Amino acid sequence: MAFGRLRKNKQEQDTNDDARSDEEDAGAIAEAPASGPYDVADKPSEEGYVDLGALRIAAAEGLQLRLEVEEKTQRVVAVTLDLNGSSLQLQAFAAPRSDTLWDDIRGQIGKSVGSQGGTVDELEGVFGTELLAKVPAQAQDGSKGFRVARFVGVDGPRWFLRGVFGGPAAMDPAAAGPLEEVFRNVVVVRGEQPLPPRDLLQLRLPRDSSPLPRPGGATSDRPAPPERGPEISTIG
């Protein structure tokens, strides 16, 4: 009888453990991000994407793409996406397998902005902790003002992706929505090459200079072949 009771208790315990496990799994699924940015292992298909090497950019109507080229080395160091009067600059970096970079990089951005006489506010946004930076700048009419930039960061498997929203998307959630959707659909291709943490992942010109297609394969009414942009500064 005692053995029977113990066995029954064990079965009940196993059932309870299974129930808890199911609840924990459901909780983990609920907490998992519903969308990207993605690692290439999670979204390997190139269909509907512009392939820039380390980054793949999903097509969107009206989206224009500019490659930022370092003048001295002629190396592509960033891609800037323009949409509806706002911009999103993207850079991808190598990261350690067992560590994250965004916490430390936020501190570096704050110091850099502070050295220029600007201010930084740390906020919780749709991609987690982000920074809203305001740097003193002179307006076209000569008056003093601020240039505003919104920094977001995502730590992936052995990579880190930084996005900088400019224009209305830096401040206005409604204006930011379309570019946030573009950011969510970015695919990062880390590659297997060993790289020091914070090294830029290699970007390149697309395989052809065709315009960004509309979703579904149709060509946009406003062709936007990739073009080179000015030199920019990189972090770290």
From TrEMBL:
One family name in Pfam for this protein: DUF3710
Stretches with biased composition (Basic and acidic residues): 9-19
Regions of compositional bias (Low complexity) in chain numbering: 198-211
Organism: Arthrobacter jiangjiafuii
Protein name: DUF3710 domain-containing protein
Region named Disordered: 1-45, 197-236
